[in-house]
Amino acid sequence: MVSSERLLAFAAMSFLLxxxxxxxxxxxxxxxxxxxxRAALTTVVGNTVGAYVLVVAVxxxxxxxxxxxxxxxxxxxxxxxxxxVYLGVRAWRKRGSLQAAVTTDGSARGGGPxxxxxGFAVGVANPKxxxxxxxxxxxFVDRAxxxxxxxxxxxxxxxxxxxxxxxxxxxxxxxTGREWFARSPRRLSLVGGxxxxxxxxxxxxxxxxGRKD
Length: 213
Prior knowledge:
The protein is an all-alpha fold. The protein has one domain (4-207). Helix content is 78%, strand content 0%. The chain has helices spanning 4-19, 23-35, 37-59, 62-68, 70-93, 98-101, 113-124, 127-135, 148-181, 185-208. Helix 1 packs parallel to helix 9 (148-181), helix 3 (37-59) packs parallel to helix 8 and helix 5 (70-93) runs antiparallel to helix 10. It is a multi-pass membrane protein. Its main location: membrane. Keywords: Cell membrane, Membrane, Transmembrane, Transmembrane helix. InterPro entries: LeuE-type (IPR001123).
């Protein structure tokens, strides 16, 4: 199995990657601003499940195909970017109706299956984690110990546990700030628009960056 030294080294590298806001974190923040705490945490769960699907894909050998193929990588990146833009446009268009969705305690009704699915879609199409799992994860596997797939799944689990903790902090912090805006329909509309524009900008950024080879 994975040695404690390798596990700690991988955890440290994972934390450095996760703590810097990327597509998943910015999407969670956008969701928190647009829909509140429940939607943000549901998005974190969806993101995590999506990211672990990438871990399973790498463990089964699919990740190496994505890493070697510019076409596959670019297609995955553009699909994810387009979906982010779509969600951002939808959030922007619905910014004026956010007040009706806010409950008496200041949180929004946004934690259903659709929110979970949207978080999953962003997580599984995240180019940053795709490259990390495909290029970095295999380097921490001790092939001499055997059970390579199990080692990758364990390392991926460590990554996702760290991601859940960090992304939840980001989402809760953003949702807390949102509650101040929720006291005014005009301010709430403003923050809903900001959340939508954040997702649109994120989608454009994801589409414009990445591998050039």
